[in-house]
Amino acid sequence: MARTRNSTLGPAARPVAIPEEFDGEPTASGIVTIPFHVRWSDPVVAYDMAERKDRIRVYEQVLREGTEADVLHYVDPNELAELFDELVLPPKVRRTWEEWFERHDEASAEC
What we know:
Elements: E1 31-33, E2 46-48, H1 52-65, H2 68-74, H3 77-83, H4 91-110
Antiparallel strand pairs: 1-2
C-alpha cells in the first residue's frame, strides 16, 4: 500500500470533470442531496439550491468529486462564473476551470 502522495496517487492525480459545453439548464433545484460518489462522508446533508451558501457548497463538492453528468445536473455555468471566486477548490480544479472559462470567453468574443 502506498503511504505517500505523488503525481499518480492522491487528489492531484484525479481528473477534473468538465463538460466541453453546457447544453441546457441544470436540473437540480429546490432541496437536493449529493450522491455518495460525490459526497462520500456521513451524514447525508440536504442543500437548498435557492440559498447562495448551499449552492456554493454543492458546487465545491461537485467540481472536486463529480462526474461530467454531475456537473451538468448541478452546476449552472453562469452562476458558477458569479460564485467562482468564493469557491474553495484544490489548485488543479481551480486552474482547470479557469482554463475552461478562458476558452469559452474567447469563443464568445469571436462570435
